[in-house]
Amino acid sequence: MSGRKAPKARKAEQSTSLHVEERPTWLRPLVQGRGPRYLQIADQVARAVRQGTLKPGDQVPPQRWLASQLGVDLTTVTRAYAEVRSRGLIASFGGRGSFIAESYSAPRRATVDMAMNVPPLPAKRALADHINSGIENLLRNSGAESVSGYQNPELDSSALQAAKVWLGPMFKAMSGSRVLMCAGAQGAIYNLLLTHTRRGDPVLCDSLTYPGFLRAARALGLKIVGVPRDASGMVPDAIERCRRETGARVLYLNPTIQNPTTCTMPADRRREIAELIHRHDLTLIEDDPYWPLANDAPLPISSYMAGGHAFYLASLSKCLSPSLRLAYVLAPSGGATSMLAESFRASGMSCSPLLAHLAQTWILNGTAKDLLREIQIETRARQTLAGSILPDGVDAHRTGIHLWLSLPRHWKPQAFGHALENRGIQIANTDVFNANEADPAGVRICIGGAQSHFELTAALQQIRALVLEGRPEGDSMVV
C-alpha cells in the first residue's frame, strides 16, 4: 500500500508472537445460525477496535493461523479481512501482515448507489482472476483469431451448446426451441418489440414493470397498457379484459423476483396465463433474469407453451456480473425467429465473440455455477441484514438483489427519493417503473451496489429513520 508506513517492527513482532502462542482475548468461537462466518469474524475485529482491545498499530492475526484456530477455510478469513478493510479498520502491507489502521473512521463515498440493480460482488479479486483465467484459457486453446472476427456467435455451435447447458431445465422443457445470443436483454427486448409490433400498437405489461421495457416500447411509439396484479402477479382475468379492450397481441412479463415488486409468480398462475396466451395466440416476451438466483422458482411460463409464440430471455448480467453483457433467447423455430436473428445483426445487437466464449468457458468449467452460488450466499446475507433493520412493509426474496419498500401514507415516493438523495443514498425514481399514471405505494431498494456490509448497514439505517419520521415540513412542495 503506497504512501503509508507500516507500524514499527517491534510492535509487529510482539503482536505476531502473541497471535502464534496464545489466542487473543477478543476472539470468540463462531456460532452457527448467527450469520455468515466471515461476517462474524469481521464483527469481532470491529468490536475489539471499538472497545479499545485492539489499538491503532496492533497487528491482527495471520490469516492461516486464524483459519486454523476457528476451524474454517482460508477463504472465509480472507473475506473477513476484506470486509474489515472495507470498513477502514485495518491496513495491509505486503510481507508484513495487516494492522489496525491509525485512523479507523469508515471511508465514505459521496453517494451509496442503491438505484442500479446489480448483483453484489463479495469476491472481486476472485472475479478478476476468473476473467483473466477464462481469457487465457480461450487464447491458449483457440487463439485470438477465434474472437477477433465478425462471425455471428448465434451460429457458433460450441457457444450455443454452453447456452443449452446453462438454460438446463428451460431448454429441456422447451424442446424444439432455437437458441439465440444477444448483447444483453435490453437489446433482445427492443428487437422483439421491433419485429412483432408496429408504431401505435398496444402492448401489455405489469402495472409496475422493468424500466428498460418501458423505454424500448416508448422509443418505438407503442401504447403501453399496464395490467392489474395481485399478490401472485399479473391477474389472468385482467389480461383477458385488457386484450379485449385494446386488441393487444404482445405480452411482456417478468415472473420471477419481479422488478420492482420482487413477486415470484406461482406455478398455477403461470399455467393459467400460458393457457390464456395460447388460446388467444398472443406473443409472450418472458424476461427472466433472476430465475437462477431463486432456487425455488417454478418453471417459466414459456415451458408450458410448446409450439406457442413464446420468447424466453435469460440474461447473465443480473445473476453473475454486468461485465457479461450477454443474454440467451429461447425462441420458437420458424420465420419470426429468423426475423429476430436478422434484426440482431442489423441493429448491432449480436453478442461479442469474446464475451460469448468467456461465458462458454465459465459455464463449461463450473465457474459460472461457483459465482452464482457465492452471489446467492451474499445476497441472502444482505437480505437478512435488510430484514433486521428496515421496518415492516418490505417485500423481498431471500436471494434477490432488490427489495420493495412500502411507504407510510405521508411519504410520496418522489419526495422520499429526494430526501434519501440529500442523505447520500440514491434509489431509482419510482416513476420509471410506472406503466400507468397512478403513483406506486413504495420504492425499490437495491442491495447489490453497496461496497460492504458496513456501508449497506449505514444506508439501511438511514432509510429506516426516514421511513419512521413524521410528515416532513413542507413536503407538499416536493414533487
UniProtKB/TrEMBL annotation:
Keyword DNA-binding: yes
Residues annotated as transmembrane: none
Organism superkingdom: Bacteria
Gene3D superfamilies on file: Aspartate Aminotransferase, domain 1 (3.90.1150.10), Type I PLP-dependent aspartate aminotransferase-like (Major domain) (3.40.640.10), Winged helix-like DNA-binding domain superfamily/Winged helix DNA-binding domain (1.10.10.10)
Gene Ontology MF term list: DNA binding; DNA-binding transcription factor activity; pyridoxal phosphate binding
Ranges where the record places region Disordered: 1-20
UniProtKB keywords: DNA-binding, Pyridoxal phosphate, Transcription, Transcription regulation
PROSITE patterns xref list: HTH_GNTR
UniProt-listed SUPFAM superfamilies: PLP-dependent transferases (SSF53383), Winged helix' DNA-binding domain (SSF46785)
Family classification: In the C-terminal section; belongs to the class-I pyridoxal-phosphate-dependent aminotransferase family.
Protein name per its UniProtKB record: Vitamin B6 salvage pathway transcriptional repressor PtsJ
Organism of this sequence: Achromobacter insolitus
Species classification: Bacteria, Pseudomonadati, Pseudomonadota, Betaproteobacteria, Burkholderiales
